[in-house]
Design brief:
5 helices, two-stranded antiparallel ribbon, mainly alpha
């Protein structure tokens, strides 16, 4: 019997695939946490605490803690650019780059190099390199589950008005 002809069988099969995928994500997240996630999240949390010392830099602290959360458990979630972020996030990203972004990116690069020495660490090293851009410019991003990335509507408001 064809799977497409039997919806119950197709549903069970999809459930098994999702269950396996969930187990693989859990295992990857656990290995990530042990190999580099904890230490990188600690760096982001430290940067967030420093940002909370001054009232003006609280938005940077919030972004830092958001990315620390993502760095602890990244598999199964994606970072996407928030289409509604304006030019202030660009200005804030320049300030972030000067104050904290470069050393957090350096931490990701050094962790990637250390992880890529071993065979099992190569995927985790690649994941660290994927986090470098968001460590340089954290404002204007949001974390969404991987299943919902296709559903996130990326729409830019039309900047050209009637002529």
């Amino acid at each position: 019997m064809d799977v497409a002809a039997d919806p119950a069988r197709a549903s069970r099969r999809a459930g098994l695939i999702c269950d396996r995928l969930g187990r693989v994500r859990f295992l990857l997240n656990l290995l990530w946490l042990v190999l580099s996630g904890f230490w990188l999240a600690l760096g982001y949390a430290f940067a967030g605490l420093i940002c909370f010392l001054l009232i003006v830099t609280i938005p940077f602290g919030v972004a830092s803690f958001r990315i620390a959360n993502y760095t602890l458990w990244p598999f199964g979630r994606e970072l996407v650019r928030k289409p509604t972020s304006g030019c202030l996030s660009g200005v804030g990203n320049v300030i972030w780059f000067v104050v904290a972004g470069w050393w957090l990116a350096l931490g990701h690069i050094l962790a990637a190099i250390a992880l890529m020495i071993t065979i099992i660490g190569i995927p985790f090293g690649i994941a660290n390199l994927k986090l470098v851009p968001v460590s340089l410019t954290p404002l204007g991003h949001e974390i969404v589950p991987s299943d919902e990335v296709g559903r996130v509507i990326v729409s830019k408001p039309d900047s050209t008005g009637p002529v």
